[in-house]
Structure formats: C-alpha cells, structure tokens
Write a structure and sequence with these properties.
OB fold (Dihydrolipoamide Acetyltransferase, E2P), 35% strand, 8 helices, single chain, binds adenosine-5'-triphosphate, 21 strands
Length: 349
Amino acid sequence: MAILLDNVTKTYTEGDDAAVNQVSLTVAEGTIATLLGPSGCGKTTTLRLIAGFERPEAGRIAIGGRTVVDAGTWVPPEKRGIGMVFQDYALFPHLNVERNTAFGLKGRDVKEKVRATLNMVGLGSYLHAMPNQLSGGQQQRVALARALARDPVVILLDEPFSNLDTDLRSQMRQEVVEILRQAKATAIFVTHDQKEALAISDTIVVMKDGTIQQKGSPREIYQFPETAFVASFVGQSNLLRGTMGDNSLVNTQLGPVPCHHTHGAAPGESVTLSIRPDRFEMDPAGTLHGRVLSQVYTGEAIDAVVAMQRDNMAFEIIVHIHPEEQIRVGDMARFKVLPHFVAVIRDHH
Ligand code: ATP
C-alpha cells in the first residue's frame, strides 16, 4: 500500500470539532485517489497530514510501508518521499523551467533526469523559459515535473486546476492524469468538483464534516451512493422514503420500484431510495404521470422538475428528458422508472 491512514484525527482548536475525525483509508500503489467534499470538510487537512505540514493528535500514517507519524514517530515533510503540486504552482519567478524543476535535487544525473521529466510533460523545448513567459497550463506542468523528478512515493495535488479557465481545466486534467499514469505514479488529489473527481480517479473518498462518507470507484460512488449526502453531492438525486419489499422491490410514493442495489436492506425495513434524474424515461405507457413545472435545455438533456401525482399524493421529481423530446412547462407527461442503478441508501444525513 502506498498510503495508509489509520484512525487519524486532527483538531486545530481545543473545544472545536475535529477537522479530520478518525479517518482511515488506503491508496494502492500506482493509483489515483481523490478527496472530494464541500468547503471545510477536511480534505486539505487530510492532505497536509499526509505531507507532514500538520501533526495528528491520534492515529497512524504510513507512506510506502513506513510509518511517518504515530504516537511515537515523526518523520518531517522533506523525508516523507512526497511531491506536492499546489493551486498556485509555487514556481520560483527568477528561475527558468529547467532550474525550477531541478531545484533542490542533487546527484550526477540531475540534468538528464530533469530533461527527461520535462520531455514527459511536453516542455522539452521550454527549458530556458521563465515562469512569466508560460501559460497557466504550462506552469502547472512545470510544477508537476518538479514533483515527479524527485521519484516520490506519492504526489499530492491540492486543487491543482482551480486557477485555470474551464476549457483549459478539462484539457489539463486529462493531460496530468495521462502523465501520472505514464509515470506509474501514486497520486492523491483534493477537489470540491464532483465532475473532476469522476473523471480522474481510480478511487473517490467523499468527505463531510471531517469524516469519510464513502470510498469507492467513480461508478460505485455515482451509481450506488451509500448516504443521502453522497447521492446529492455527487450528481443530482431524488431521495424517496420507502419500505423494502420482496425481490428487491421497494414500495415508495411512486409505487413499487425495482432496485438494483439494496445495500443489504431486509424485507420490511424502511429505507431511502436514490433515483438519479436520468432513471426516469418518458413513456406514454408509463405508470407515473405529472405536470412539468420547469424545464432547462442543456444540450445533452432537458432538466425538468415534474409534479407527480399518485394515490392523491403530490410530490416533485427531478428528471432528465431526452433532448429531442418536445416538452413545455405545464404539459402532462408519463414516465417509467428504469430499474438499473437505483440504490438503497443507509442513512438520512
Ligand atoms: P476548502 O475546500 O475550503 O479548502 P477543506 O475541505 O479542504 O475546505 P480544510 O481546509 O481541511 O477543509 O478545513 C477543515 C476545517 O478545519 C474547517 O472547519 C476549517 O475552518 C478548519 N481549519 C483549517 N485550517 C485551519 C487552521 N490552520 N487553523 C484553524 N482551523 C483550521
């Protein structure tokens, strides 16, 4: 395991809630993990604990199989085998690309190593350029090369794309991920952007209030959220109360809904169901009907809110309708629920 956190807790101010509360996680060698969550959930603190910029009051952290902090151990940041890439790149303005990348490196083969790494990030012909002559994306690649040239056990990246505009941002993140994969690097990203996390990660760790809500692959997190928070934070979701029936059917306001993933709920148990907006399909023979309250055309779909009626009960559902459908506010429409990726979630946080 490249990284292991075992029950790590960090409180900044005595009497306050812990910024990171009994967090345990592992990151396998050569994989990309993302800490995802809203502002203040503890993701940056988790990264800083791994880097050694903060000290936990409890728990253990190991990097590359070596304990770097526990009750009786403290390895300082520069001896942990980590590479850092920050949001603002943190390049030295008075050093050219080659010297920025080589900064602090020792040994006979530094020059070759630095040049090979700069080639890998596509900056082989910018060795003598100064940081202020580079675009934001190029500066970010220098920062990445500087981290990679040290052959770190793990690269830690704190919101590395947030200074880039939208187009460059998605291009850069694909480039950075390709470089990391090519280098077989282990990396941990911090982001509050769920789309980014889904796009780049092998494993997503969703955090809230200093604790881990769920760990899993992007598919697991999106398709089978375990908590109401994860269902709503990663994509949109309709959360419906219901009772577990037989054969993985859940009885809800919408009637019996076939559920793909029951998370171990037993028949008779009351549960919450997460149904993604794209699980509703317009169908003239559908058993659900309702009036369209609002609709927004996004190109990929029509995002609509529909007031559903059933057994004299009315409730609102968010649906994604195929963009070729002609639909107006006020229209009545019929829907059916597609069975896959409807998930039972465990709690009501
Ligand atoms: P953001 O996306 O806004 O950076 P985050 O998820 O990275 O948020 P952290 O920066 O880890 O969250 O902060 C977690 C909690 O710890 C917050 O309540 C924050 O106010 C608090 N905190 C962070 N750094 C310090 C500090 N140096 N001193 C005191 N409290 C801090």
